[in-house]
Amino acid sequence: MVKVTLYYKEGCWLCDTAEEMLNGLTLKYDIHVNKKDIESDDELYEQYRFDIPVFEFKDGSNLYGRIKKRELINKLKQNRE
Q1: Per the count of CB atoms within 10 A, which of 3, 38, 39, 64 is most buried?
Q2: Homologous superfamily of 2-78 in CATH?
Q3: 31-67: per-residue pLDDT in tens?
């Protein structure tokens, strides 16, 4: 299993695209996604508003912005439990 936190904002087309890409890999990599809307928390909004979408992995690494599928797959492989 791979645990991923997705920081996003409603109406963000990059966020929607990133989530669709992740959803397409969910079964293959047994992904558990914890979604966090940055607009629900002022601190999250200040931290991520210019970087969304952001995938955060258990090793502390992140992917953000225009995420490439190959980069995402590499991070998923690195963060398997």
Answers
A1: 38
A2: Glutaredoxin (3.40.30.10)
A3: 999 999 999 999 999 999 999 999 999 999 999 999 9
